[in-house]
Amino acid sequence: MSEPTTDPTADPAADLASDGALETAVGFAAAQAILKPRKARPFYGRHPWVLDSAIHHIQGEVADGDVVDLMTDTGKFVARGIFNSQSRIRVRLYSWDIHQALDDAFWRGRLETAVALRQTLGLEKRDGACRLVFSEADGLSGLVVDRLGEWLSVQVTGLGIERRLDGIIEVLKELVHPRGIFIRTEKGIASAEGVQLRDGLHWGEAPSGPAFITENGIRYGIDLAEGQKTGFYIDQRENRLAAARYMRDRRVLDMFCYSGGFSLNGAVHGGAREIYGFDSSAKAIALARANAELNGVTVAKFEEADCFKALDALKVNRERFGAVILDPPKFARSRSSLDDALRAYHKLNRMALDVLEPGGILVTCSCSGHVTREDFFHLLLGVAEQSKRGIQVLETRGAAPDHPTSVTCLESEYLKCFICRVV
Ligand code: SAH
Description:
This protein is an alpha/beta fold. The protein folds into 3 domains: 12-95, Roll (Archaeosine Trna-guanine Transglycosylase, Chain: A, domain 4); 104-204, Transcription Regulator spoIIAA; 233-422, Vaccinia Virus protein VP39 (Rossmann fold). It has helices at 12-17, 21-24, 41-44, 104-120, 159-163, 165-176, 189-193, 237-244, 261-268, 282-294, 307-316, 338-354, 373-387, and strands at 31-35, 49-51, 55-59, 67-71, 77-83, 89-95, 129-134, 143-148, 151-156, 180-184, 200-204, 211-215, 218-222, 251-255, 274-279, 300-304, 321-326, 356-366, 391-397, 416-422. The strands form 4 sheets. A 7-stranded mixed sheet has the order 16-15-14-17-18-20-19, with helices on both faces. α10 links the parallel β15 (274-279) and β16 (300-304). α11 (307-316) runs parallel beside α12 (338-354). The longest helix has 17 residues, at 104-120. Residues 228, 233, 236, 256-259, 261-262, 278-281, 284, 306-307, 327-329 line the site of S-adenosyl-L-homocysteine.
């Protein structure tokens, strides 16, 4: 009988030793992160986050931002990633192939694949907005890139990506030819990851005034330098249109309206009779008003207010609506705040039902990754019970397909948008 053929993953040390060049070549690891016993399973399952608590020790010299190999306690290669001592996610994994270097060609390949997907989705129009790179869901943990018309808005949430940003930016320039690239840093990320806090134009030219995009045939002005998130909530593109289909001749309340996306779709595509949008941010309300004007929409009125207070006041004044949209900010920022968040979502939905007429439409969203779809159903059950009203879920929706979900990192599934009829 002949010898079994060598499985390269079975004995990585031998494999690397047989080709000494590998150890020192660019993109290969000089050090290994050795897992604690029985901690390897999620990483064989290709989850990309190795928390500090899963690692037993580091073998060899490694600095933040360096490539490191993840090994089992018995010395088997699991995956290749990037080390960061400043983050709870001690290693972010990018490849499960022992022969794959994390070199320039690797990052270019991942970016090309991500951009090609958006072309497949028909989202390459120069005046449109789409998410070109969605972190873990595109195998690029720590990088988010939105294209807003002719500009790119880049968010860096991992140190490994930050260290390679110059190369990544060059590839993006080549692939999508933007006029300018902005970098935005989410609150709290700089300290959690040890990445530099930056906000503003990074390369190229800035638009003179707002950047303009078209989505679902509606024009929006976007504040690239100071707008929320990367400037526009692109993930709701298809939900705005879906919700609009239920708005005909209805009086609509658009809570947490930001730049007016749900309102404008309700007016332009849905034929809503009148629309009231509320947001606590004065800048958001200014954007929403400007966008309504830009599209010749006169049925939508926007007002700066806290949505909980506004709902209270509307109830007291016995105002009633044929549709209510709830698109609040992330209430659950961590697992520990989940219970408080669920209570807040419950309260909000309960209050919405108080101003929703029988047979009315409730469009209710949650962008907290920690709140599962099942949690959300359960929450609506509680609301139905307490308000003694029937809730029929007509559509359970998520983020638009340029925000894919990686089945090996379910944290990439975050947006729930349920369209319901309330009897
Ligand atoms: N529906 C919007 C996106 C909403 S994002 C769209 O389609 O584009 C969440 C919004 O909630 C933000 O604009 C933020 O300013 C607002 N917000 C946060 N807390 C609020 C509160 N307590 N009351 C009213 N608005 C609030």
